[in-house]
């Protein structure tokens, strides 16, 4: 790989992702760190840890079998269930919480864990499904002949477990950083406070922002602790499963169990994905005041009319960020994977995780500190800063996706090309990039989706006021439930559009996971 | 080659686009809901021909977004006018030297209670802290004020937003100077001991009451009006009319120190403080209470003159919130 190119990409990673964090750290002083050891803070942290563990364990318990069954077996409607299970990732988890607390009396800590598990189970399910797709069909067939479907699934289980655990680690990260769902679900009954509340409320302070920055550190540590094992598993090749060159597995027959297993799988998709969508459709048509097609049309027309420019801003910023991060992800992901000095590679890996680990509000304030100066005022005021912020927040994911894909490519072709005289740039563009196109597409879509729903950091930069997610949350307060619901549905559709287009126009399936 | 040049090229393109973007004549940060404030700002643009860049907040961030931005941007101020939907953060910013002095002629008839002596901010169009009551579950005539939340008869069936952000934080912090340290602390302890439900915000509290999950609880008049307009069985109790009175939380408007466009900022502040805009806000769905007795209002909007208003020295007590936040976190964030 060309050293100047890697250094340039690294410089952009530092500018986009690390500098905003670095700009905030000098505010921390020793008393702020000592305050973190107070009983109240530790109590909140302990509770958050437990919530994360329970919720992500639940996500694993449903996500792993779901991923296995919908990928390896003849489960009825598996081709529909698998993509439908991704819907919770497109909607903010608070929508799931609002839907279910309206339908049933779900309150308190267990309900919070359950709802967050329902919102995050697609992560272990996705990782499991991706790993299951890569299991050599011949081995699976042999296991089935020896002991039936149960034996084949038992053979597959240890192979998909490490990737499933990686997905679970990500689910844990999402859970411990969420405060909206615990706060909302415990609006009735005993209050269930979590550590992310501490971080958010610390920013109410007038002057002592060092304490607010320091309050984020335990959450950063928890997040990194969860992600480290996942990365270690990836480094050890635990995601490689079996025979990369093997043929795809034929779906395993389930016999009479098929219909029985279909019911819980369908119920899972219905509770986590369809119910929130149906609720939005219901609200868009008038909701409890009486649903009508005319009201439904009116809400959509109003939403499109009022927020056309917001949609355009969101799509443009998210698409630009996705494009930039995909290119940077390819360069840095490749460098990370091929770096001979492993200590340096691990240090780089750790650095790439930081923007994901810090609370969004801290990242957003870091952007203000960094860019609000007379010299950079035009840039600070422009949508370009929104693009930069999205890049900084989500570049780590693009790097990890690309690094995972590079790991599955042997270095032999690159070595042969190098011996033949091809330069590093040519090797990257003609040898490495083409087979990674599905991974690059995956990284692009992942960053696009997350950018479309990013609010907590973006709210602090000027031009993010013009995004569609901002309009949604600005309108939530004022009881225009029909308008909010219509706008949510439009936003969800736009968010999923690139994935649909890829599915329609490309013969190669996307590769988002390692 | 193209891929190698893409990152810097894309950034350069972004920077070029940024530099070419049209510049506004005045920048306003507005914490009032966009749906209400935007038409007013557009009206100002139509009247003056000035181009306004308006930036808003979201409910989930409880004004933290804009206030924090103003504080962090103070080294290179870009905002001219701050239209806050409450007063505590505004007063704190004035104390910290972030606001410029401007005695708007449009504010001449606003009562002195709502104006800073040094003319750094002016209050107008207020919300009241009220008790929203579900009339299917409770008789509003039997509910009188803050102590009803602590009544054992209502245990588990009343609520308020967790007092760590927004108007509930301001309200609870102000109980200290109004009731005295001891009584305020007793009240806050009572809230916890009486099992008062702590919701994720005033709007959530309103939704829980209108749908019958709770019988009554603290909220703001703008949230109440949403439930009232939608036809839910709700009533508003303006609390403590025999004792401390009802807390009014006015909108506040101010000009930032070192505002880049001071002249346009003054024109915008004059416009916002005009009686016409206060009447517009009273007639809107947010049903803001005019602080001027002369301003017209629809029948469902109470007049400040018709109720006992909590005696609050807004100018002195804005900093109280920051002072009390630690104690409230200690009590309510465990």
Query: What is the CA-CA span between the terminal residues of chain B?
Result: 56 Å
Terminal Cα span of chain A: 21 Å
Order of helices and strands of chain B: HEHEHEHEEEHHEHEHEEHHH
Annotation field: number of helices of chain A: 24
Low-confidence stretches of chain A: none
Number of domains of chain A: 2
The CATH architecture term of the largest domain in chain A is Orthogonal Bundle
Largest sheet of chain B: 10 strands, mixed
Rg of chain B (CA only): 21 Å
Task: List strands and helices in order, with pairings.
The complex is a heterodimer of chains A (514) and B (334).
Chain A: H1 3-24, H2 30-35, H3 39-72, H4 78-84, H5 87-90, H6 93-103, H7 108-120, H8 122-133, H9 137-176, H10 180-185, H11 195-202, H12 209-215, H13 217-235, H14 257-284, H15 293-338, H16 342-357, H17 360-371, H18 377-381, H19 383-407, H20 412-419, H21 424-432, H22 437-452, H23 468-476, H24 481-505
Chain B: H1 2-20, E1 26-30, H2 34-48, E2 52-56, H3 64-72, E3 81-84, H4 88-95, E4 99-100, E5 122-134, E6 158-161, H5 166-179, H6 181-193, E7 197-199, H7 202-210, E8 216-220, H8 221-229, E9 234-237, E10 248-256, H9 262-272, H10 275-283, H11 314-332
Parallel strand pairs in B: 1-2, 1-3, 6-7, 6-8
Antiparallel strand pairs in B: 3-10, 4-10, 5-8, 5-9, 5-10
Helix pairs in contact in B: 4-11, 5-6, 5-11
Description:
The complex is a heterodimer of chains A (514) and B (334). Chain A is an all-alpha fold. Chain A has helices at residues 3-24, 30-35, 39-72, 78-84, 87-90, 93-103, 108-120, 122-133, 137-176, 180-185, 195-202, 209-215, 217-235, 257-284, 293-338, 342-357, 360-371, 377-381, 383-407, 412-419, 424-432, 437-452, 468-476, 481-505. The longest helix of chain A has 46 residues, at 293-338. Chain A starts with a helix and ends in a 9-residue tail after the last helix. Chain B has 334 residues and is α/β, with parallel strands linked by helices. Chain B folds into two domains: 20-126 and 249-306, D-Maltodextrin-Binding Protein, domain 2 (3-Layer(aba) Sandwich), CATH 3.40.190; 127-247 and 324-332, D-Maltodextrin-Binding Protein, domain 2. In chain B, β1 (26-30), α2 and β2 (52-56) form a beta-alpha-beta unit. Chains A and B meet through α1, α3, α10, α11 and α15 of A and α1, α2, α3, β7 and α7 of B.
